């Protein structure tokens, strides 16, 4: 059975809230209520809604302003406005701004129900479309392990050898070397290829929520657990679960993961029932886990369990023969069907002379920036970042930048190129928007 979808009604009239909650709730639709803008904001922090019904006149906010605010912080949600007769102009403006529909008070319940259903269908369609786009992008971009250096050939050989194996694999290497690409390739060539490939970065998990995210929880098992939750282990059933940055997994959860790897059994939070997991595990880290074990920061038994089969990806500067192929690959990929920009020999030499501390990810970012600057013409040296040109000339006078300073400068430059658009900058940098916000705060790059 499909899980129910969530509707939030924001209205200051208590009787309307009560009526809508009573009449519109069903086994496939859960109706939540909020009596003003402030409690709607709180509600949004706790729950992902599919449809929001919003009264245009609220005691503490203008419905249209609130709508604009919601649009900024939510995705995959449709809004329906409730308006009075005098608000028709506002309603028309709201439709222009992207509100799904509006209904005027007094309204008929069955009309509202039809609007909510249609809004929900649109949300589903958008999710499906994005899922398709995501899968296409992920498979075309990630499965393709580009490179002809000896280490990359060896890695391709190992991936082939793993086709019929279920052994956990630990993928190691600096940030940006391609650990994600290798994990995707292992899954795609495995017997589980048609089943889910679930990726989770352990460093991004809220500490208090890690156990629940991985193993799931029972309704009521802790404050705020208003619904039962399936963990990633259940979501990845029959498929592959790739845990990135495994070194960041909290210690108490490390023990439960070890038990799962050894016995294939786990328990949801708040439950005694044992569940069987049918999941293939892949792990990645850019930290020295053996050192973390020595320092007592990582469970030794778990380390041995996940380190049965290790694939190490060397830094890009240790396999520069991969660079021309990677350049060609990224220029094709980033041209988006437009004619592929030319890369003159001189520019390629500059790229080859550079050290690439951010590895393949940095190469991709540099090329994306260069493509913007070259305006569809050949990529000259002027399209490359200054530190790349400086370091390639063996500029020994300038003190070398720390990785942090380089990151700061690079983010500042990308933000400038993107005219301050954080969304665009996050795409160019190939990092999540939240990560970018954190870095902007950390480096004091706010305008
Ligand atoms: N050999 C490769 N062939 C094609 N693309 C690659 C290759 N290596 C890396 N990339 C691309 O470089 C970028 C960074 O790669 P990826 O995310 O796999 O790095 P990572 O090692 O997992 O980094 P992190 O530790 O920061 O998560 C991605 O856009 C990826 O598609």
From TrEMBL:
PROSITE patterns named among the record's database cross-references: RESPONSE_REGULATORY (PS50110), SIGMA54_INTERACT_1 (PS00675), SIGMA54_INTERACT_2 (PS00676), SIGMA54_INTERACT_3 (PS00688), SIGMA54_INTERACT_4 (PS50045)
Protein's GO biological process: phosphorelay signal transduction system; regulation of DNA-templated transcription
Classification via InterPro entries: AAA+_ATPase, AAA_lid_NorR, CheY-like_superfamily, Homeodomain-like_sf, HTH_Fis, P-loop_NTPase, Sig_transdc_resp-reg_receiver, Sigma_54_int
Annotated ranges, domain Sigma-54 factor interaction: 145-372
Keywords, ordered alphabetically: ATP-binding, DNA-binding, Nucleotide-binding, Phosphoprotein, Transcription, Transcription regulation, Two-component regulatory system
Location of the Response regulatory domain: 6-120
SUPFAM superfamilies: CheY-like, Homeodomain-like, P-loop containing nucleoside triphosphate hydrolases
Domain of life according to the entry: Bacteria
Transmembrane segments: none
GO molecular function terms noted in the UniProt entry: ATP binding; sequence-specific DNA binding
SMART domains attached to this UniProt entry: AAA (SM00382), REC (SM00448)
Chain positions with 4-aspartylphosphate modification: 55
Protein name: Response regulator
Higher taxonomy: Bacteria, Pseudomonadati, Thermodesulfobacteriota, Desulfovibrionia, Desulfovibrionales
